[in-house]
Each structure stands twice: as structure tokens, then as C-alpha cells.
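Risk mitigation, structural track. In case the binding assays with flavin-adenine dinucleotide fail to produce interpretable data, a predicted complex structure has been prepared as a fallback.
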Amino acid sequence: MRRIETQVLVVGAGPAGSMAAKFAARGGARTLLIEKRQEIGAPVRCAEGVSCDWMAECEVAPDPRWIATTPEGARIHAPGGACAVVSAERAGNEVGMVLERSQFDKALAEHAAEAGADILLKTHASDVLREDGAIVGIVGKTLGEDVEIRAAITIGADGFESQMGRWAGIQPPLKTRDVDATFQYRLTNVECDPRYCDFYVGSAAPGGYIWVFPKGPRIANVGIGVQLALLRGKADTKRYLDDWVARQPALARGRPLDMVAGAVSTCPPPRRTVASGLMLVGDAARLIDPLTGGGIVNACLSGKFAGEIAAGAARAGDAGEDALGAYERAWRSRLERKLLRNWLAKERLITLDDPTLDAVVTTLAEVDLGADTLSLLTQIARRHPALVEGFAELLVRV
Ligand code: FAD
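Fallback model:
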């Protein structure tokens, strides 16, 4: 058994983990980032659309190495064909660029390394280590060898399929209505408009939506999210997408370069993301936006908060639940209201039938739309107040 000791251990080198490792190391903590795969950023399980408004805060400068395209805006398509366009100037919030995630994730890990974090690949956690009720690291394997990694603070950044929270006993299982099963092709030989990220709502994607995000000339990420509770079988998600693609003249002659299946959480804000010695970040903490399914921004922000607080806790020699509670307060004050609002909005919108969605998108097409979900919901509230009944008070910018 190999034994390693560090001050801060980060499990998972996705955006949340690399960001946490960067800020923990920057704060002076001896930091180790472990990743179960042999390559950071691969395989990609993401549509790769992201806004730009968080980057300065996380000290990430846009880099052509990981930017595939920079669409001007977004379009929301109703089942009957109505289309609401989000104008270029206002498109900043939910869509801003389409990434090369394989390069983006590596770049974030590079930033962590530059800040002083160590990185171990092919190293996975298979359980947490406990001592006197606190999490004090993990056990697992590194390059096939048994390993015990002890740390004052462990950050669980192990993504949607996270086990860290479950092992620590702080994360209940998700309800099937709070999970979208996803399937995506990277299609070549398609005709897509590089100026827009396209979203298709309605019964073609029950409880979710279909997306077409331009990756380059004649290449697009074409994918679908369907609420797990509405699926009959595992192959259903792919079948919904295949059926829809076959009906789109611009896409039907597309040929796949890769395909991925996955899932996103669409749940309300999590109750608990901290235990003594442990913080959960990004998808592992269930911080994906429940309305859009986008999780990169919240992964980066929560990773930053956790990394900074881990460094402070390491300096102070206090990794108790109260000390790490500062992390939970930080993400809640920044993200909780929006997560709750968008979960309530998702709950309402997934009940709408195709004619109602046609009517909603038709009214949205008549107005100047802001691209963030708050602007969108505010416009829906003006025209269809019944749809926001019960959470209208959350429709204010704070
Ligand atoms: P991840 O990126 O999942 O990283 C977790 C890392 O932990 C992985 O590298 C994994 O290998 C590693 N790991 C897991 N278990 C262990 C272990 N036991 N030991 C060591 N390492 C481990 N979000 C957007 O913002 N925009 C989009 O367009 C978008 N499209 C999506 C499309 C699909 C099909 C899917 C499935 C998701 C999409 N998302 C999108 C969500 C987005 O991909 C995630 O929110 C984001 O990757 C979260 O980052 P993370 O660091 O929390 O987790």
C-alpha cells in the first residue's frame, strides 16, 4: 500500500476540481489533484456551451486553444416552428462560446499546476477515510497500486456520478424526475448557423430539450436531454434524438465523429455540501443549473470558493464542519437563489404541452430577449403570469 500525505486533496480533475486545486495551492496549501482517467478532459461528455461572464472572477483568460466557436446568440425553437432569437448583444449569460472541453479542462489543470498543485493521473478514490467522525482523505488505487491518501481537507470534485458525498453520508440519491439522461453526437457534414446556439423544446425531448451548438464549419454538437422519469428504456434517449435528427433537412445527412451518453442533475439546491474535512463542488455537489443543464460555470465558481476556503482552513489548522461551512455560505449566497428559481421554472415548463410552448415562444419572439434565464423568465412572467405562479417573487436580480 502506497501512502501519501497532503494538506488539500482534490478528487477529480474536471473544471471544479482544477479550479479548487488552483485556488487551494494559490492560498499556500500543499495540494494534490487526483484524476481516475489517464487523460484530463477526455472523453468529452458535454455540449461545451458556456458563458463568459464568470471568467475574470475565476482568473481564466479566454484562449483560442480551447475556444471552438463564439456564437453571437441563441435561438429557442418551439415545436410548431416559432423561434425566439436572443440578440447578439444580450447573449452573454447562458451562451457565450462553444469550448473544446478536452483542451479547456487541460488548461484549467495547467493553471492548477502553475499555482503549485501536484497532479496524479490514473488515481481513483474508492472510499473516504474517516477518523473521529471527520473525513481525512481517501483510499483507492494509483496506477493499479493500492493507495491511501491522507489530507486535512478533501474536496470531492468527482462529477455527476460522484460517490464522495454518498460515501461521506451527506448526499441522498437523486429522484428520477430530477435527472435528465443525455445523448449527444458530434456530427459532421451538417448545415448549422455558426452565429447561434439552437435549443429545441417540446415533446421531441420530454422534460428536456434538444441542442445544436456549432463547433466549426459543418460540425455541431447535436444532443438531447430527457427527464429520466419519462424514459421507458435506456436506448430511448438516443432514439428520441435519432428520430428528430432524421426529420431535420440541415442535419439528416450528418455523420457522427463521436457520441456520448451521460446525465445531468436538474434538482433543487442541495441541502448539504460540507462535512468535517470534506467539501463537495461542481456536479458532485449537484450545482448544475436545473433549467439549462449547464454546469461548467457553477463548477468553476464553487471550485474557486472551496479552494480558497480550503487554503484558509489549512493555514488555520481547522477543517471542522463549522470552518468549512464558509464554503457552503459562499456558494449559497452566490448561486442558491438562481438554482431554486430555475428548478421551480423547470418543474413548471416541463408540464407544458406543445401548443402551449408554441404560444410561449411566439410571444417571446416578439420581444427583445436577454439571454440569461432570469430575463427569459421575466418575459414569460409578463406574458404568461400563470406560468410563474408560486415563484414570481424570485424573478428579481439581486
Ligand atoms: P466533471 O467535469 O464531470 O469532472 C469530474 C472528474 O472527476 C472527471 O474527470 C472524472 O473522471 C473524475 N472522477 C470521477 N470519479 C473519480 C474518482 N472516484 N476518483 C478520481 N477521479 C474521479 N454544462 C455546460 O455548462 N454547458 C454545456 O453545454 C453542457 N452540456 C452538457 C452535455 C452533456 C451531454 C452532459 C452530460 C453534461 C453537460 N454539461 C454542460 C454539464 C457539464 O459537463 C458539467 O456540469 C461539468 O463538466 C461539471 O464539472 P465538474 O468538474 O463538476 O465534473
